[in-house]
Design the sequence.
């Protein structure tokens, strides 16, 4: 469009750049802090440019742990990875078959199941945290991977996404499959599943981030340090009452805690955005 | 009311792609100009440059005596009807039409007067309180026109406004637009890919192809004396037939390949400037081939398409390779394999240079 | 919406839906039921005796000034987080949408805070504003502002608001950007021809068409402020100082796990559950009325 308002374009760029800088600022400071030694961190103001201890700090926490008493961060990242993958894969698995059942079959109790699942959309785990912990403890699942993973896959966001997607698949496909002699499971495996690939990928991205970033649940469910996840541990270590944190190492741990989800968002941006938008419809 | 002047108008996109190569035209006050051409020829781009929705890379556009290159759309005193109507979905029909006037701070009475006048002209009076969602395609199109009308601009711009309507509505609306324009006498520039719309609406046409104005003229000019193979083939339906031929001796005849080892010679109304023996593309419109028992053109019928009012016959002349269409009036009984003879009026022969596709002038 | 074609199997659908139903029953309905049950009980701290007390826990809450303080705090907090979050992200989205070149680069840089866990966000901002070594604290001291969120309740609240908004901006930004890009360009052009400048075009055309998205985001942001910010509070202030940042969801956790008052905590859970249900119902209701063009 012909518009004689160049200053507006300039202003637009400026605003966005300022926005980007403000958004990036905390992360930059954290990164910088993770590359210095402990002594530098105790003087205010702390430097704005990276130091030279990057490799040293990260190696230390990955292999030896944050301090003398804690376990190597690498192990914690493994726990987080197991949890995140477990949540993502588990949720997708149970949801896709449930959605298939709800959409492609008529059976008594169908609507009841549908509404029961629907209700789970409404209550995040924080609201029912106390009794959920009680249930899990009673089942003896404290300090176990299943205990970390399974209660989190109860919510129905994935089921709804798949349901919507299946509803948009033309009826003719199922009819053709029937005429060809394929039963429901074959139809599911050979036709529906391949078509759902992008939805599955998009959902996987969102759920992975969700699982990795869990704080409250791992905090409660794990008592043994060997099960700690990195996100909850970063928070824990930042708030130890008796001593000031070793900021450089703590920030290194924070960087590691952020790394996988951020990498996923940046490198799978399109899938991520699609997953976000579709999940919330 | 104003004239519109296009002088050497050019459009280049920053990756050095030339989209419009220089268009020159003087549009008189009150004229209805149609820019017609196939998809991608640049007609919409040209219109949008006049509107101010695209920057003009080269040349100038003037409305009245003002050069408008640097002016924003709202300062050019134009109004536009978009292909998808672009009605504000959250406003009523009345508000849609009043919006531009409100911004220009006209008085309430003035706005009301203009909106109701336009609504009356377009039969929208009963729909003023509805929202676009509640209207049919044809109604929405009329609201879009109403929005342009109330502004009382110097120039109306139409960007393929009828493309989204069904065939019957299109014919109806075409007549309405023509009638309105006649009544109001506002200079109008109308873009379409439909040559029927172009022929029926235009005082003059610009036939565009790949960013170039192939011909500018009245509908009859363009029909009777197309300046290139492209224009000849684009205007008129069914399309003009093209036959490979050679200029005959004295440049007063053309020779076609005939049956057997002979050739068919057709007399031209006027001598041509091309030298004898020059290879040409000979254009003959389907409707200008007249059945004649002793005509020079022997036609082998391959297929007949009865349309009711006319019949289309598809076949070949003698040894010529090209498939030719003949349009005969009425229901002609014809079968595949039959032979018919046709003649053609001397003024109905169009000669085009085989290489350049341009019309070859008469001597 | 129903499928016209379904398969005729008896057992299969039950088998397919069983895993999700099982998990939902065990880890959703059972605890929720427990919450309701426990909210009606008064339990001995050591699990000794339990007494059925009807709605005593609820009435105790309603006469507890600390609870009302928490309710008010949560409302203020979510209002601020939601409006700030929406305003900032709308501004960024509008500006990013205008910029044709570089839009996708900006987008990449603006969306990755979403990937940061609220708990980690809390740690980051705590570091920036740390009373002793915080970079921003030092800068503020330079202009004469003494910032110590460990002591000052209002500052603590401000900090968790900033951290929460920071975390949520990308999400809002993405949806606003998608909303802006779904407005047909021809509408904007028509408005330009009608004579509207950029400002008028935004308020008269863009904003009304964006309002369904805005409303949807408002509800999402409120729910986020209510629950998703748990990690932020946990990492930064743990509800302090002196309850200044004790939002409702934190209180549920704190009273239940730290204070061992299961009855009160369960009652609070139940009240929160009702609040969320209302919010979600409101959200679904209004989503149905989205403008379609």
Sequence:
């Amino acid at each position: 469009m012909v518009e004689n308002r160049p200053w507006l374009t300039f202003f637009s760029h400026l605003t966005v750049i300022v926005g980007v800088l403000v958004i990036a600022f905390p992360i930059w400071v954290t990164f910088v802090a993770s590359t210095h030694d402990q002594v530098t961190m105790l003087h205010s103001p702390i430097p704005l440019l990276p130091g030279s201890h990057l490799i040293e700090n990260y190696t230390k926490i990955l292999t030896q742990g944050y301090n003398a008493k804690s376990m190597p961060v690498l192990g914690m990242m493994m726990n987080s990875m197991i949890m995140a993958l477990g949540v993502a894969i588990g949720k997708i698995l149970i949801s896709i078959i449930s959605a298939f059942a709800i959409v492609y079959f008529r059976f008594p109790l169908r609507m009841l199941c549908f509404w029961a699942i629907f209700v789970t959309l409404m209550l995040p785990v924080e609201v029912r945290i106390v009794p959920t912990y009680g249930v899990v403890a009673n089942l003896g699942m404290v300090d176990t991977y299943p205990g970390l993973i399974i209660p989190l896959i109860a919510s129905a966001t994935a089921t709804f996404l798949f349901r919507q997607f299946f509803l948009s698949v033309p009826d003719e496909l199922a009819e053709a499959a029937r005429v060809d002699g394929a039963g429901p499971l074959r139809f599911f495996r050979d036709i529906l599943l391949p078509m759902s690939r992008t939805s599955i990928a998009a959902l996987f991205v969102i759920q992975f981030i969700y699982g990795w970033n869990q704080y409250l649940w791992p905090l409660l469910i794990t008592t043994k340090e060997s099960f700690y996840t990195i996100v909850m541990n970063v928070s824990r270590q930042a708030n130890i009452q008796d001593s000031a944190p070793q900021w450089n190492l703590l920030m290194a741990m924070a960087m590691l805690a952020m790394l996988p989800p951020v990498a996923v968002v940046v490198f799978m941006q399109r899938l991520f955005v699609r997953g976000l938008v579709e999940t919330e419809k | 009311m104003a004239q519109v002047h296009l002088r050497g108008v050019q459009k280049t996109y920053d990756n050095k792609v030339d989209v419009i190569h220089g268009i020159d035209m003087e549009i008189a006050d009150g004229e209805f100009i149609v820019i017609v051409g196939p998809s991608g020829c640049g007609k919409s781009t040209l219109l949008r440059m006049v509107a101010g929705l695209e920057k003009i890379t080269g040349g100038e556009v003037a409305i009245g005596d003002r050069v408008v290159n640097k002016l924003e759309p709202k300062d050019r005193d134009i109004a536009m009807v978009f292909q998808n109507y672009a009605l504000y979905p959250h406003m009523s029909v009345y508000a849609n039409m009043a919006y531009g006037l409100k911004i220009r701070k006209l008085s309430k009475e003035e706005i009301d007067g203009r909106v109701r006048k336009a609504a009356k002209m377009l039969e929208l009076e009963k729909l003023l309180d509805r929202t676009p969602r509640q209207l049919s395609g044809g109604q929405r199109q009329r609201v879009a026109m109403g929005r342009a009308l109330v502004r009382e601009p110097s120039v109306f711009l139409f960007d393929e406004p009828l493309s989204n309507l069904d065939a019957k509505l299109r014919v109806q609306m075409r007549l309405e637009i023509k009638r309105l324009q006649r009544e109001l006498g506002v200079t109008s520039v109308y873009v379409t890919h439909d040559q029927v719309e172009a022929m029926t609406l235009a005082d003059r046409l610009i036939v565009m192809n790949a960013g170039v104005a192939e011909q500018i003229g009245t509908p009859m000019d363009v029909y009777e004396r197309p300046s290139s193979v492209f224009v000849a083939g684009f205007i008129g339906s069914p399309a003009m037939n093209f036959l490979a031929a050679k200029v005959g001796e004295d440049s007063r005849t053309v020779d076609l390949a005939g049956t057997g080892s002979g050739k068919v010679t057709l007399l031209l109304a006027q001598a041509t400037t091309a030298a004898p023996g020059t290879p040409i593309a000979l254009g003959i419109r389907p409707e200008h081939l007249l059945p004649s028992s002793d005509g020079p053109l022997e036609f082998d019928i391959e297929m007949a398409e009865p349309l009711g009012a006319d019949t289309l016959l598809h076949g070949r002349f003698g040894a010529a390779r090209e498939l030719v269409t003949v349009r005969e009036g009425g229901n002609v009984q014809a079968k595949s394999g039959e032979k018919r003879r046709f003649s053609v009026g001397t003024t109905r022969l169009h000669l085009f240079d085989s290489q350049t596709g341009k019309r070859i002038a008469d001597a | 919406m129903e499928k016209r074609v379904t398969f005729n199997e008896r057992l299969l659908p039950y088998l397919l839906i069983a895993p999700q139903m099982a998990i939902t029953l065990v880890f959703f309905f059972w605890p929720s039921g427990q919450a309701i049950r426990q909210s009606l009980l008064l339990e001995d701290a050591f699990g000794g005796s339990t007494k059925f007390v009807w709605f005593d826990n609820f009435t105790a809450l309603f006469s507890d000034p600390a609870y009302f303080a928490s309710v008010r705090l949560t409302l203020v907090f979510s209002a601020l987080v939601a409006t700030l979050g929406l305003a900032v992200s709308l501004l960024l989205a509008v500006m990013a949408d205008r910029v044709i070149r570089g839009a996708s680069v900006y987008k990449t840089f603006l969306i990755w805070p979403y990937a940061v866990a609220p708990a980690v966000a809390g740690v980051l901002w705590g570091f920036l504003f740390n009373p002793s070594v915080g970079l921003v604290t030092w800068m503020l001291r330079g202009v004469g502002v003494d910032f110590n969120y460990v002591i000052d309740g209002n500052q603590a609240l401000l900090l968790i608001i900033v951290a929460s908004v920071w975390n949520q901006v990308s999400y809002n930004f993405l949806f606003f950007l998608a909303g802006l890009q779904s407005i047909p360009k021809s509408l904007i052009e028509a408005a330009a021809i009608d004579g509207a400048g950029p400002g008028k075009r935004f308020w008269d055309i863009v904003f009304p068409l964006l309002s369904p998205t805005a409303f949807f985001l408002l509800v999402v942001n409120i729910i986020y402020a209510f629950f998703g910010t748990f990690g932020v509070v946990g990492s930064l202030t743990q509800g302090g100082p002196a309850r200044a940042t004790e939002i409702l969801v934190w209180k549920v956790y704190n009273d239940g796990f730290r204070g061992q008052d299961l009855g009160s905590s369960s009652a609070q859970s139940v009240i929160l559950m009702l609040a969320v249900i209302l919010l979600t119902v409101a959200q679904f209701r209004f989503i149905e009325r989205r403008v379609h063009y």
